[in-house]
Amino acid sequence: MATTEKPTDEEILAGLAEIVEEVAGVEADEVTAEKSFVDDLDIDSLSMVEIAVQAEDRFEVKIPDAELANLKTVGDAVTYVAKNV
Amino acid sequence: MTKLRLTHGAPATRILGIGSAQPERVVTNDDLAAVMDTNDQWIRDRVGIAERRFGGSGDTVVSMAVEAGAKAIAASGLSPADVDTVIVANCTTTVPIPNAAAQVAELVGVKGAGGFDLNAACAGFCYALATASDMVRTGTATRVLVIGSEKLTDIVDPVDRSTAIIFADGAGAAVVGPSEEIGIGPVAWGTAGDLVETITMPNGKHIFQEGQSVFRWATTKIAPIALRALELAGLEPSDVDVLIPHQANLRIVEAIAKKLRQKGAREDMVVADDIVTSGNTSSASIPMAMDHMRAAGRVHSGDVALLVGFGAGLSYAGQVVICP
């Protein structure tokens, strides 16, 4: 990417929503900050890995497996990406 | 100065015939749900398995290897005397001594054959196939019986729902022999020793794996190995008729297929899904899948098959073969 500007939280959320839709078939509109990946979006541990791998590519950030357990909600993931990008 | 001579083998090699063997006992997801906290849907969603085979006390790495090996020799139109080397890829014999290969050679009727076991875990068959092919090309061997045979139920905690739902027992075999045309391509192999801790036997008795780490590795690093095997063989992804990855988890298999299609593999490429009814049988899974697909008419003689094995070590190996 030509720009070095960090993405906004809104841009990260929109990007994550697209990834979640592709990986898990959840409509992007459903993917909002307060939703729990496991309890609300019915995403299992392996899908979380797929989401993390795609998010790493998209946002140029590292999301280790050990970190995945801490990302309970979509908002947690947005915050993590924003802080580490 | 005294000079040594070297042997010279065949210009190329191919798989002459294949065979497989499974224990009789079918174990469904409901059977497993009766002894641990799991259910049919959970298992199908996570790993794609509907049923698998568990061996009984009479089923061993050796006994299943013998059955699969004998079928492969028969399918090749050969007799045991035509084979001079036996390689048994496995990681589940209960004791390291004696090895399985010498027993298998004796019981199959390949008297006095060269024989050894090869442990590259779930990548074992592809490692053994490459080794056998190179042995025939250099003249070390004429025809090699290559077997992957595993009794994983011997090293799985029967009530650990993270592993007991995945692993199963069985064997697959191929006879490798000389050929004018190239029927076994160069191998792309390697290890990822930095991830050794992700699949281990921490108590010395039962297999343990860090599911997420192994899944990440398998879904991101194995497709490039498969592409490398194609490149080494001088083929394009669109040339592949059949993709046979190690049957580790249906989601991993589908992820590899998806990546290859993004690189040009055909939509009508047949993708092995033998895990659905056979479970994960480690080094046996690739030849067993090929044999089951052949029997079902999904794989035909002359098809270009892309094989790729991956597992503990971590280890991986892939090559292109022409189906017998």
Structure explained in plain terms:
The complex is a heterodimer of chains A (85) and B (324). Chain A has a single domain, classed as ACP-like (Non-ribosomal Peptide Synthetase Peptidyl Carrier Protein, Chain A), CATH 1.10.1200.10. Chain A is 54% helix and 0% strand. Chain A has four helices and no strands. Chain A has helices at residues 9-24, 45-59, 65-68, 74-84. In chain A, α1 crosses α2 and α1 packs across α4. The longest helix of chain A has 16 residues, at 9-24. Chain B is of the alpha/beta class and 324 residues long. Chain B has two domains: 12-179, 3-Layer(aba) Sandwich (Peroxisomal Thiolase, Chain A, domain 1), CATH 3.40.47; 184-323, Thiolase/Chalcone synthase (Peroxisomal Thiolase, Chain A, domain 1). Chain B contains nine helices and 14 strands. Chain A binds chain B through residues 44-46, 48-50, 52-53, 65, 68, and chain B through 45-46, 210-213, 215-216, 219-220, 249, 251, 255.
